[in-house]
Amino acid sequence: MIINTLKTKKHSIIFILTSLFINILNAQVIDSTIFSFKKFPEKGFTISMQDQGKAKAYFKTKASYYLTQKDTANYIHCMVGLAYIEQARGRYNNAFDIIWNTLPKGKHINNKAPVLKLYRQLGLLYGNYGKDSIALHYLQEGLDIAKAYYSQPKTNSNKLSNSYFSIANQYIKMKDYNIALQYLDSCYIVNSSNKKQFYVNALYGLIHTEKGDFIKAEKYLNGIVPYFENNALGYQAKVNMFIGNLKHAIGQQDSAMFYYQKSLKAIDSLTVHPEIKPEVMEKLALLYFAKNNKTEAFKYMQGAKFMSDSLFNTQSRQNNALFEIKNKYQEDIYKQQELIAAQNKLLETKDKASFRLKLLIAALLIISFITLITYKLKTQMKKLQYEQSIINEKNDAILEIKNKELTANALQIIEKEHSVKELLVAIKNIDPKKHQELSSKYRKSNKKLWDDFNLRFKQINNKFYESLLKLHPHLTQTDLKLCALIKLNFDSKEIAEILAISTHGVHTARSRVRKKLNLNRKDSLTNYIANILPDS
Questions:
Q1: How confident is the model at residue 259 (pLDDT cuts 50, 70, 90)?
Q2: Residue 59's closest CA among 27, 88, 90?
Q3: Measured by CB atoms within 10 angstroms of the end CB, which terminus of the chain is less buried, N or C?
Q4: pLDDT value of position 334
Q5: Is the pLDDT of residue 35 over 60?
Q6: Residues 350/494, Cβ–Cβ less than 8 Å
Q7: Which residues span the membrane (predicted)?
Q8: Residues 475, 468 contacting (CB under 8 angstroms)
Q9: What is the pLDDT of residue 310?
Q10: Dist. CA 130–CA 480, nearest whole Å
Q11: Residue 129 and residue 93: Cα distance in Å, rounded?
């Protein structure tokens, strides 16, 4: 009788532990089967055309709902919507974070169709920062998914067409127009509706303008603006710029200025495509300068300079809030420990009449817990390693992007300084008093820009300075600034522009630094600085 009772209790305990084990494992399972477009929140994108703030709140609410329902597909669509809004506002780092944090969920679902938008959005973000090869990689990943799910008849051919369109747009950024045309042709080939594709025609017009075939360009661009304006589509900002480029190319300056102004109005009123605003303003500045309107030219040139700095400056209000990925598995471990403690307390209150029963229960618990913890730790270590690899890849990409931003920003400043100086010379002959006033403002603004540049480099590459000073503590601030510019691959002429010294002075400064670094004549100063690593 006692033996039967022991067996019964033993089986009950094993059943309880097995159930607990299965429940904990189930808590870790990522939704891999749920995939439904029926609940997809298209309404959010409609709202974003009128009020991006409301659309953002809508997507957040829907994302939380789909997450609780384990509907990973629609959760991904909501996160893509949030990333789209952040990108439209120029908050590229926020959009970048959203996509990176969502991507792991997409890797664990069987139907990869929702991941299409993640890859496309990631490709567009990398494209904005000039990382062409990485951008094409993710856009091609998206195209492969689109081909797998939408190449058959009676499927959504727009998804496949959009993928070809995104790759064509990237090749246009790379100025590889012939390949871009091939992808644009594919947009029409795969589209079963045979309707006019206004977005595709807009890019056709842009390409033919750049290739100098203005008759074809006008054919594609003619009459497409009303479609975007009537439907309140943000792409009208780019279309107006494309038409402005065409008018400028064929010598119709007044018409070009009209369309550039329309482009600026669309950017500001619809809060879309801020990345093209500096380019549009700069083109307006050149047109005003050609019309001998120096005041308006100077205003738009300064505006382009300010917009470029505020949009791509890593210290700007829009881009200074990078999120760190939290380690959710620490909370899982804590909950597991609470379950173990609760189970132990429950077992301690059980029948104390039989010592052997207690030993048996303890042995079963210890064996089960050790097995569970070992399994969980192995599973979590694999997931942590995967998450860490994503974090490392993201951090490396962000650091490279930030340094690229910094370099591009400095080169833009140098280029725009030449333009501003030319404008000041022109104004001097017309209005000396105005020239003196603007020159004073220019000098103050210029000094602040380079001070900001140096501050941003220190914040982005603080470990570089620490490592360099650890090896060579006698370096001065001037020496460090020269090393920073060398690390960013500026040549002697560009360094001379930034430091406001002659090219000969740069060579002298480089020789002084070489001596302080104890380099031989055959050693490369550029390679030495490039190989300075954190905690060297």
A1: very high
A2: 88
A3: N
A4: 33
A5: no
A6: no
A7: 355-375
A8: yes
A9: 66
A10: 28
A11: 11
Per-residue CA distances from 411 to 253, 446, 450 (Å): 28, 13, 12
Q: What is the DSSP string of 319-366?
A: T--PPPPP-HHHHHHHHHHHHHHHHHHHHHTS--S-HHHHHHHHHHHH
* Degrees to nearest 5, angle at CA 376 with 375 and 379: 85
Q: Which residue has the tokens 């090869």?
A: 133
* 526: enclosing H helix or E strand: helix 525-530
| Tokens linked to 313 | 């400056």
Judged by DSSP in three states, 367 sits in helix
Angle formed by the axes of helices 294-312 and 355-430, to 10°? 170
* Residues 519 and 477: beta-carbon distance below 8 Å: no
**Could you identify the residue written with the tokens 């140096």?**
454
- List the domain boundaries for the chain: 203-317, 319-388
Q: Copy the structure tokens of residue 272.
A: 């879309």
> Is the pTM higher than 0.70?
no
**Whose structure tokens read 């040139």?**
301
Look at residue 232 in the predicted model and tell me its pLDDT: 80
Tell me which H or E stretch contains 83. helix 72-88
The answer to whether 234 and 273 are in contact (CB under 8 A) is yes
Q: For residue 461, how far is the Cα from the chain centroid?
A: 20
Residue owning tokens 């051919």: 157
Instruction: Report DSSP letters for 439-460, one per residue.
Output: HHHHHHHHHHHHHHHHHHHHHH
What are the structure tokens assigned to 103, written together? 């991507």
Confidence of residue 271 (pLDDT cuts 50, 70, 90): confident
CB 243 within 8 Å of CB 225: yes
Confidence of residue 329 (pLDDT cuts 50, 70, 90): very low
> What is the length of the chain?
536
Question: What are 288's two structure tokens?
Answer: 């005003």
The yes-or-no verdict on residue 521 having pLDDT over 90 is no
Q: What is the largest distance, in Å, between two alpha-carbon atoms of the chain? A: 114
| DSSP one-letter string for 29-94 | PPP-S---STT--HHHHHHHTT-HHHHHHHHHHHHHHHHHTT-HHHHHHHHHHHHHHHHHTT-HHH
Q: Which of 183-197, 379-393, 425-439, 443-457 has the lowest mean pLDDT?
A: 443-457
- What number does CATH give the domain 203-317? 1.25.40.10
Integer CA distances (angstroms), 261 to 230, 231, 255, 278, 394, in order:
18, 20, 10, 13, 38
Amino acid at 113: A
Q: Which two tokens stand for residue 98?
A: 């959203």
Please give the pLDDT value at position 208.
95
Identify whether the C-beta of residue 298 lies closer than 8 Å to the C-beta of residue 423.
Answer: yes
Please report the pLDDT score of residue 340 as a whole number.
56
